[in-house]
Amino acid sequence: MPKDGGIGASTKRREDVRFLTGKGKYTDDINIHGQAYVYFLRSDVAHGTLNSVDTSAAEGMPGVVRIFTGKDFEGIGGLPCGWQVTDRHGEPMQEPAHPVLAQGKVRHVGDPIAAVVAESLEEARDAAEAIDVDITDLPAVIDMKAAVQDGAPKVHDDLTSNLCYDWGFVEDNRQAVDDAIKSAHHVTTLELKNNRLVANPMEPRVAVGDFNDATGDHTLYTTSQNPHVIRLLMGAFVLGIPEHKLRVVAPDVGGGFGTKIFHYAEEAFCTFAAKEVKRPVKWTCSRSEAFITDAHGRDHVTKIELALDAEGNFTALRTETYANMGAYLSTFAPSVPTWLHGTLMAGNYKTPLIYVNVKAVFTNTVPVDAYRGAGRPEATFQLERVIDKAAREIGMDPIELRRKNFITEFPYATPVAVEYDTGNYNATMDKLIEVADFAGFEARAEESKARGKLRGLGVNCYIEACGIAPSNLVGQLGARAGLYESATVRVNATGSISVMTGSHSHGQGHETAFPQVVADMIGIDASQVEIVHGDTANTPMGMGTYGSRSLAVGGSAMVRATEKIIAKAKKIAAHLMEASEGDIELKDGAFTVAGTDKSVAWGDVTLAAYVPHNYPLEDIEPGLEETAFYDPANFTYPSGAYSCEVEVDPDTGKVEVLAFAAADDFGNVVNPMIVEGQVHGGIAQGIGQALLENCAYDDDGQLLSGSYMDYAMPRAADLPNFIVDHSCQTPCTHNPLGVKGCGEAGAIGSPPALVNAVCDALQRAGKDVKHIDMPLSPARVWAAMNG
Amino acid sequence: MATVTMTVNGKSRTGEAEGRTLLVSFLREELNLTGTHVGCDTSQCGACVVHVNGEAVKACTMFAQEADGAEVSTIEGQANADGSLNTIQQAFQDHHGLQCGFCTPGMVMSAAALLKDNPKPSEQEIRNYLQGNICRCTGYHNIVKAIMAASGQDVSAVAAE
Ligand code: FES
Ligand code: FES
Hints:
- The complex is a heterodimer.
- Chain A is α+β, with helices and mostly antiparallel strands.
- Chain A folds into 3 domains: 15-23 and 484-630, 2-Layer Sandwich (Aldehyde Oxidoreductase, domain 4); 31-138 and 202-255 and 260-293, Aldehyde Oxidoreductase, domain 3 (Alpha-Beta Complex); 300-469 and 634-786, Aldehyde Oxidoreductase, domain 4 (2-Layer Sandwich).
- Chain A contains 19 helices and 30 strands.
- In chain A, strands 3-5-1-13-10-11-12 form a 7-stranded mixed β-sheet, with helices on both faces. Chain A has a 5-stranded mixed β-sheet with strand order 7-17-16-15-8, sandwiched between helices.
- The longest helix of chain A has 27 residues, at 550-576.
- In chain B, helix 2 packs across helix 5 (141-150).
- At the A-B interface, helix 1, helix 17 and strand 30 of A face helix 2, helix 3, helix 4 and helix 5 of B.
- The structure holds FE2/S2 (inorganic) cluster (2 copies).
């Protein structure tokens, strides 16, 4: 049994109290005396030449403080891209400029043209309407394959084409894979789309810039998952502000899901404008504006081919993907369809030969970047769909086909450059079969049939690479950042502890789970430990929260710092008890000398550190505060097996999700309640992708799904209760907690299960339906049944 | 601009509002009650739900001037008199019915309105009632469970915790 409040306990979240009483402090709740408000005038055409922006009439409007246009940002850096991908031929990707406010051209609906700073938001908006913008429309490129045809209109005139890169992985395997597929016993081919999504954290983005002209200090309050990254990117690459003069604060943040990783124009604008107008400047994004400015997710068009021998062993895999970058490169966009996608194409299987080709394409759409799972859902979806299709084609049970090809020995080096340290894919599959009651499925299907409904069961596995990751490796792969994490553990004189972490919590419950770890290590009550995060002024440089990395990387940094604390505290305890340091043991918050009944309490030692009257000052410094930076040796590899049970209405094509089960292997688990909540949320987003959500553009580049009227967010009645299990645990071998990360699994593992289930339902009803593209709307399902 | 007076969480509050000022903006900006949130601009998300004269209302769909003279209660007024969490709030904490907390004030206010009308709702009734409240974090499982628990129903059969 886990100790109360320690590792393994479902401790209730302490942060909930402020959120449940309306006392959370989100960025939009911050108002600084004297602040002005900014409204961005945005392009309503997808592609055009910006001939002129005449602000003269608007400048005289009531309340206007100042109007900015692209001219004000000439000579100021554009928004940087944090990852450079090298193409198949060894050339760097094409990297366009990304100005803060449009210069010369507009490239997507939502591209900011001018920014009005005024006394109130209403006045700023009124004045924006009086700005006269002269744009000559240009033909928009929306479809990726059309965008890379010769003669297609170019999104960026100074690039050679709309192709950002043509990436091959592993390029040396290309011929061998081609040969294996050519000579294979059986090849299953599937063409599919991974639908474009909008992350939609419920809190829209907000930025408040502030400048102190007496000290020259800038402060930016922003809805970010990684304030230090924003400080570095914006300070060093956009505005030229050194770190010690720039503080970035991300207070309570209302969800991120990837879309709040990136550095956005509005953050740079508010920081810049606050100095220019000598007042704090606040921007609050409306939801409609979020749809045309937040980085979108997914949007891949893929052809995958799986080769099998006569026994059903996978012999080779080839996949070709077009990945939409949108109009500009968002911060980490190039890495998503490449290193976060290609490296996962082995999945849970020992396919010996794999080749992945990705063509990243510029289009006149909002930039696309990481969204919960980022590349791994795209990899999982195509792989798990093609396996299901192959099973049908060769007449083998889809679970048996998977089991036959499972990797069973670890560590396992895949042909796509990663090494899985641990896993047990049969165990999670067995667990799934049990918790989802597969044995009772046929009876349930009969019961559905009696009601005139078609029931189907879909299964899939997933693997993900999380805890991103070794800095030296990602550096070789093109990251322009390190991916360590940091923690400072500050023990106070009376024994309470403040942990300053570079991770950021925006729903993940760090304030509760992180203290469980530290308290467990020392043997004190978790209420004695407090987490400080989200402010560059009082936390060590850290890379923030995304890629299911907080506990695996940030938690490991915290463990390392706490180990240093314990080592020093033992020295102090040894002095106090006049014993040898090697004999000191720490248990339940007390130091003892082995083999004696001597003991000093944690609080006595911490007090001695700060009141060093009886203290070994010649050997150690006073105080008890340690910092650690942790750079992992490898990714972590959570895995699992998911199932979905659906009912299809044959008359309307409507799909109802009746049951969804997840058997995950996250390694060790610190707070099971929080872990399960993370999986629930991920599954809901995955079901949303598979069943409901679609970000659609028309041919002119107008966003058709620009609000919650048209973009179908999953609601309570769309979803069932979930069955989640994480009892299969193969601990990570290379981080001190043995944890793997759980934040993205649900979103990665769930879409193929749902699509597999619908295909199963239709096939059981005798319909020869091989695939339906997501989202599985009634119209699409009906068309597939009757097509 | 007009002067608007309303009783908010039992106290009389007065502020200035333009004709176009929404109740939610008045609460947040004029009265500094920032617990009520804005998650959309099409009246879909429910982050802004408050009670006006005892009814659940999306505060983004009502002008502040329309609430002149009304009794308004917001998330800030929900805790027990001694400051402890009320039954619904406590159930949300106990059953992990929130993650980022942004939808939470609206969820709690909607749940309170539901339980007033329907003290023992079924799971399906809760799910249907919440159609105007979007949560992106929780997948609703634990929200539904929390509301059932708050209504005094046994939730031990509902999978997972
Ligand atoms: S803000 Fe009121 S419904 Fe979204
Ligand atoms: S808890 Fe984040 S939106 Fe509901």
